[in-house]
Amino acid sequence: MVVGSGRLARGYWNDADATAAAFLPHPTDPSRQIYRTGDVVRLGDDGLLHFVGRTDNQVKLHGWRIELEEFEAAVRSFAGVAAAGVVPRRDQGGKVQALALHVASSGDVVDGKALRTHLGRSLPRHMVPAVITVGRVLPQTATGKVDRPRLAELDA
User: Fold this and answer.
1) 23 vs 94: CA distance, rounded Å
2) Which CATH fold topology does 57-155 show?
3) Which of 34, 50, 54, 89 has the fewest CB atoms lying closer than 10 Å?
4) What's the CATH code, domain 2-53?
């Protein structure tokens, strides 16, 4: 989704790369700009925009924005973790209530309790997952990345 307004910010403070990625020239008036939000919405029969999801893997949990890839990178730094996938757990209204972490071990079995302690020391409190599941493999896409939709199905 993109938005435009006479009151739109000119960009991100001291971050030219992020500004260039999110703030674009208006398609019909080059003197104005539009902002790429990262949200995916649909126009309802009622004329309102309804939030569907995000184009990236960012979630908002208790007011905090969390980039799931950054979170997973922190998890993969723990000894024995081969792959990590985070699944946001949502309430009936679609609001993220907690994070569930799925980990695949490389060889040795990863100690979930030790991993939780590690994450509690290395991450902000709001990012520590509610649940940690350790297994041998995680579902993958054809390109070898963690298959988030499939992981969410398994988590449910």
Assistant:
1) 28
2) GMP Synthetase; Chain A, domain 3 (3.30.300)
3) 50
4) 2.30.38.10
Q: What is the C-alpha separation between 105 and 135, in angstroms, rounded?
A: 6
The residue type at 133: T
Which residues share a beta bridge with 100? 87, 131
pTM above 0.90, yes or no: no
Per-residue burial over 48-71, b if 16 or more Cβ lie within 10 Å, else e, is: eeeeeeeeeeebebeeeebebeeb
What is the tens place of the pLDDT at every residue in 80-110?
898 898 888 888 877 888 888 888 887 777 8
The distance between the two most distant Cα atoms of the chain, rounded to a whole number of Å, is 59
Residue 42 has pLDDT above 90, yes or no: no
Domain boundaries, the chain: 2-53, 57-155
